[in-house]
Amino acid sequence: MGEVKHIPVLLEESIGALNVKRGDWYIDGTLGRGGHTSEIIRRGGKVLGIDRDDQALEETKAMGLEGLVAVKGRHGDLCKLAKDNGIDAVEGILLDLGISSPQLDEAERGFSFLREGPLDMRMDQTGAVTAADLVNTESVERLEEVFRIFGEEPQARRIAKAIVAERVPRPFLTTKALALFVERLLGYRGAHHPATKVFQALRMAVNDEVGELEKALEGGMEILAPGGRFVVITFESITDRIVKQFFSSHVGREVSLQQGGQRWEGKEPRAMWILKRAVKASEREVAANPRARSAKLRAIEKAAA
Fold first, then answer.
1. What is the pLDDT of residues 110-130, one digit of tens each?
2. Domains, the chain, ordered by start
């Protein structure tokens, strides 16, 4: 198999929002193939790069980036991992929550319904639970919940009931088997494959993406130095909503008091918007990298102590 190249999304916009300063530490909580990290280092920063994918870590370490400390782990543990590596505070944190092109394009990883492969979807190949485990063992109620919450699939219950009925004589073991089953069940509804939301939901459930994101946001605000920047790129509405709500809660707002004056209302530590609105990929970037189409970039700066 030839090398599968991963093109970092919103590269200039995200690194620009980080405002990299020479010699300072930054965390890339979703290291991947090192696209964003390479640019941080090029601008003089030092990076603690975190990823749970062994293959991604091996390939990025092989790049020999001076100033990179690459560690295996989950970005939900970024605060602990930083302190374990002697870093008490960082000037910026970047999370690119999209799945990487190599993960999608390598059939044996089981992320894509476009390629025949095992129904796996584990970012960490040592993880215990695969997508096949969920599909073939969980109850109708649990599968409905996964498809509805993580995939925002309007026909979640119908799909869950059909899967549970079908799996008794024929367990779902491959990506194509599940994708074709959903396609036959729903038919095509617009431009996207009918199994798109089902596969997204299973991937997010297998890798606990929402739980890890929530932990990463909380830990990030703890390890971030005053004046440091927190930059997140999302690709699904559920993760974008979590990031927007979390950032908004720390930016807070001034509330007028009945007796006069104002009071700030929000969570500590305080922050301010670097980007008041989410930044999306340009038409030019989407044309060059269609996977950037759904990307949204949000950024805040932690208030000075």
1. 677 777 899 999 988 888 899
2. 11-102+209-302 (3.40.50.150), 125-206 (1.10.150.170)
